[in-house]
Each structure stands twice: as structure tokens, then as C-alpha cells.
Design a protein that fits this description.
Elements (H helix, E strand, L loop, with lengths): L4 E6 L3 E10 L4 H13 L4 E12 L1 H16 L3 E5 L3 H10 L6 E3 L4
Parallel strand pairs: 2-3, 3-4, 4-5
Antiparallel strand pairs: 1-2
């Protein structure tokens, strides 16, 4: 098991959360804290970079959905970027890709 790590960087109008490791039931605190910080600092947009995510289970998907809904309820928006591999397949198979704004990788 690779513990989820995150790096939150604030820009003038948005924030970027870069995730690294495994997104599962043990991960909600890191993402909840990041979302709360984005909302509390008045930013309207959060980009979640999942390029270095190595695993995501159903609980990880639930955490991402909750974060997206919380930001939307606060008048903001969340997008996922660099979606690939297992996460990309799971989002596609479950139809949950439609629940998120997914920006294509520029790499």
C-alpha cells in the first residue's frame, strides 16, 4: 500500500492539488482539508492532478465525488487532469466520467 500524498498550490484564481499514491478509504482527510482550504481562501476552482495516482477504489471515487459536490455547493468547480490507467478505466466503465470535468493531458 502506498499512502496518498498531496501537494496543494494556490494561484490567484484557482488551486492545484497534485495527488500521489493510492486513493482509498484512508484518504478522505487529505482531500477534505484541501477542499476546505480552497473554499476558505475564496478560490473558485480546484484542479486535481491525478497523474501520479497509482490506485483508486470505490471509496476513492466517493471521496472525489464528495469533493466535487462540496466545491460546487460553495459556488466553485473542480476538474480532474491527467486521468489515465485504472482511474480512467473505472470512470469510463461506471459512467462517472460524466460526473466530473476532465481536462485532457497536455503531455
Amino acid at each position: 500500500m502506498t499512502v496518498l500524498k498531496g501537494n496543494l498550490v494556490h494561484h490567484p484564481n484557482h488551486s492545484v492539488l497534485t495527488l500521489r499514491g493510492e486513493l482509498d478509504a484512508s484518504s478522505p482527510d487529505l482531500i477534505t482539508l484541501a477542499v476546505d482550504t480552497v473554499i476558505d481562501t475564496g478560490r473558485q476552482r480546484l484542479t486535481v492532478d491525478v497523474a501520479d495516482l497509482t490506485f483508486c477504489d470505490s471509496q476513492g471515487l466517493r471521496i472525489l465525488l464528495h469533493a466535487e459536490r462540496k466545491l460546487t455547493a460553495a459556488g466553485g468547480a473542480m476538474e480532474l487532469t491527467h486521468v489515465h490507467g485504472l482511474l480512467g478505466r473505472v470512470l469510463g466503465v461506471t459512467g462517472l466520467a460524466k460526473a466530473f470535468t476532465i481536462t485532457p493531458s497536455t503531455v
